[in-house]
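Hi everyone, sorry if this is the wrong subforum. Our group has a chain we'd like a structural model of before ordering constructs, and none of us has done structure prediction before. Sequence below.
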Amino acid sequence: MSPLIQVDTDIWIAEGDIVSFYGFPYPTRSVIVRLPDGTLWIWSPIRLTEDLRDAVTALGTPRHLVSPNKIHHLYLQDWAAEWPDALLWGPKTTIDKRQDLQFQKALAKVVPESWQGVIDMVRFTGSFFMDELVFFHRPSRTVILADLSENFSEDFLLRHWKPWQVWIARRWGITTARGYAPLEWRLSFTDRVKARAARERMLAWNPERVIMAHGEWQKTGGQAYLKRAFNWI
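Answer:
Right subforum, don't worry. Here is the predicted structure as tokens:
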């Protein structure tokens, strides 16, 4: 059975391990897009297993390895070692954190030429803690988020989180009832003007789907989902 799930034409997701983040069990997810030149765009690479490597190779050659924020970088080195010709991309915050890796110029406003027409991007700023690069796959109308929306199901929480952690998840709104960003990150957005501007750019995409790194991704109703998940701004 393939470790890849096809979302639409030329876009797949890969589900990764559950990792501990400050004691909280977090599922991981990567997005893979095949670009018009046949190469692959890999967003937030997860742990590279033999099965995943074979499945990815069957789709094409990874050319772009993308970190959306300074937290999503753990497996970049493994993918870069497997595909040494791949280019590493990320915001300046990731590049500053992973000085052991060779990145291209920091992504900020404009995507590389080979992505244009297929992948759009907005840099979500306004927080003193962390920025995030939000991507939009035009052909499938899919918004791709890392930590700006966490959408845990009750089933996942009850199986993997301790009771006090479940209580926090519900209070913070990082469940399917809201799909918010974690509370401590929301509180760090001291410049709401910049955050609202980024939100409006996302909404202008009018997405059908929303894929996030952690939680239940949305196959339909993407625009309504984003309006709810970002109504805290």
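For your construct planning: The CA atoms of residues 77 and 101 lie 7 Å apart. The domain at 4-229 is CATH 3.60.15.10 (Metallo-beta-lactamase; Chain A).
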